[in-house]
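Hi R.,

As promised on Friday, here is the backbone we talked about, encoded as structure tokens. Could you run it through your design pipeline when you get a chance and send me back a sequence?
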């Protein structure tokens, strides 16, 4: 694989992907965050945002011209057809940005952070899959605390993501994030050393 070495980081909503990614970033690893790319492709004035407004109506646009993400999330997670329509619009745009960022990655390996890594073709961009894992009760409580959203919407998001056991079966590495931050930090540092070795081996074999 003649390209930069990529670790795909994923996990269910509320599992702590951002916390884990931040520690890798502190170690100098370049992050490619699918959520940030998803925001980038629907910035005010973008073609994708115009398509969304045309499809869902102007009420989906905030007064400042940006996307009303919470309103859109409530719609697509209560209607599977609308969810598929949105995915078909956005996923190819996000994937194109991912490939561009991977090709310009400046660290020994890069971390591709995506909640839908395994549900989409994004996992094909990764050399190795790291799953951050917590139980569903933890997912729900952490997400409610973070987003102060509607419990039914959050439960629908959890249900729409890949089954927890299936996600774990697809993992090359698993980080249990039910433990304390000190233990999590130590495990991430060990994984970082491992990924540096794998990235170096990959470069030497190409």
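Update: got your reply. Pasting your designed sequence below so it's all in one thread:
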């Amino acid at each position: 694989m003649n390209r930069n070495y990529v670790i795909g980081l994923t996990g269910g909503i509320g599992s702590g992907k951002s916390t884990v990614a931040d520690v890798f970033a502190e170690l100098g690893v370049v992050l490619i965050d699918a959520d940030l790319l998803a925001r980038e492709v629907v910035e005010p004035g973008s073609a994708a945002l115009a398509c969304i407004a045309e499809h869902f109506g102007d009420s989906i646009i905030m007064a400042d011209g940006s996307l009303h993400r919470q309103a859109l999330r409530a719609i697509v997670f209560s209607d599977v057809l609308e969810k598929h329509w949105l995915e078909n619009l956005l996923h190819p745009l996000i994937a194109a940005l991912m490939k561009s960022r991977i090709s310009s990655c400046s660290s020994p390996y890069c971390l591709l952070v995506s909640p839908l890594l395994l549900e989409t073709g994004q996992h094909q961009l990764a050399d190795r899959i790291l799953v951050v894992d917590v139980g569903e009760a933890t997912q729900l409580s952490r997400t409610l605390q973070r987003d102060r959203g509607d419990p039914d919407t959050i439960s629908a998001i959890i249900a729409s993501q890949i089954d927890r056991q299936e996600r774990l079966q697809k993992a090359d590495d698993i980080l249990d994030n039910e433990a304390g931050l000190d233990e999590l930090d130590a495990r991430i540092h060990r994984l970082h050393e491992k990924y540096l070795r794998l990235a170096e081996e990959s470069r030497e074999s190409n």
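One thing I noticed while checking it: Residues 181-205 form the longest helix (25 residues).

Thanks again,
M.
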